[in-house]
Design brief:
The complex is a heterodimer of chains A (about 140) and B (about 270). With about 140 residues, chain A is α+β, with helices and mostly antiparallel strands. Chain A has one domain: Nucleic acid-binding proteins (OB fold (Dihydrolipoamide Acetyltransferase, E2P)), CATH 2.40.50. Chain A has three helices and six strands. Chain A has a five-stranded mixed barrel with strand order 1-2-3-5-4. Mean pLDDT of chain A is about 80; it is low at about 10-25 and about 140. By secondary structure, chain B is α+β, with helices and mostly antiparallel strands. Chain B has one domain (about 1-30, about 35-240). Chain B is built from five helices and eleven strands. Chain B is globular. Chain B starts with a helix and ends in an 11-residue tail after the last helix. The chains are: A alpha+beta (about 140), B alpha+beta (about 270). The interface of A and B includes residues 81, 86 and 87 of A.
Chain lengths: ~140, ~270
Amino acid sequence: MRIKYLAIAAGLLAMTGAVKPAAAHHSFAAEFDVNRPIVLTGTVIRMEFSNPHTWLHVRVVTKDGETQDWAFEGGAPNALVRRGWGRDSLPKGAKVKVQGFQARDGSFRGSGRTVTFVDTGKQLFMGSSGAGAPPDERGGQQ
Amino acid sequence: MRYRLTGVVVAAAAAILAFGPVAGHAQDQKRPDRIAGKPNFNGIWRALNSAYWNLEAHSAAPVPEFWRMGAIMSIPAGKSVVVGGTIPYKPEALKQKMENEKNWPKDDQAANCYMPGIPRANYMPYPFEIVQGDQNIQFVYAFAKSNRIVYMKEKVPAPIDYWMGMSNGHWEGDTLVVVVNGNDDRTWLDRAGDFHSNKMVVTERFKLIDKNTIDYEATINDPETFTKPWTIKMPLYRDISPDAQLLDYNCVEFSERKIYGHLEKFPDEDK
């Protein structure tokens, strides 16, 4: 009997999930943790303009001398190109400061928010990582 | 405007894929020698050499990983298609090429069914079709359903890097010249690990020797990888069979186990 109720409950849960509006690709909260913001400084390994999201790969050397290769997810290539990004925006080897939010699974991944060139201070907005991403500093939604 | 024209070419290519071309001989009689005053490249083409194994000269050799296939999956010998014989690598780049060769097919993205890039797509052992009207020209490749539009009117810059690059073309007399920018640096040039950076610019030249043969040439200019520009040269042959048709090579599922096999419950089990 109890099993039957469980099954009904599970069915109801599944239905709730089904009627929820579909998120763009995936929701922010499914992969990233808004409570774990991160700022890292490193050098660009590669800027990957792939669909549905771009990925910025950055090599970071920690205080202890450990080398970590981080990947930050950005907006779709089309969205970034419309904002003025191009194939030479983040050249390999450029020193950058990336601000974003860490992945829930603790891997060296995050949702990128802004990239700042260490040399010039020029800042680029990395776009959104899907529905539910926190608002930017000016309060705007992505 | 560009997009509308592109749409027409794409629709034409889609129609060809869906319904197949008119039977070869009938098509041969109907095919005009020239379109809008330019040579007519319409048709299905293919290279007949082993440059896809190695652009440079190579002896016949076995592939240890394919031992089960014996003689039918070994490398045929081939002469170099590189003008001058060898690729002018910078010393560091040559080391990378050797490393790539050692890691074939693991690191060859074409083995993952990714689009092979230019010029490699033109001499893979799979045919491709040229769809030419009086505007832009489309190249449709059987392998991985790759295709590219060669923009003939306005010059289109490459906003980002693409697996198949961004092609802009023009005519020099009867030669179709295509300049390819925005080439993703993850494509290789063959199965021997020959590679390039995303600074590579490929200048291709297509010239009809006779109505069934193209004299194909591609000059590769990539100062990050090579000491000087270098050129490959080979004929491309028309498929003259009466029922010539470009058939899909939807390879995604063929490479599934290569890419995701490690996630299987018993990854090393033979299937």
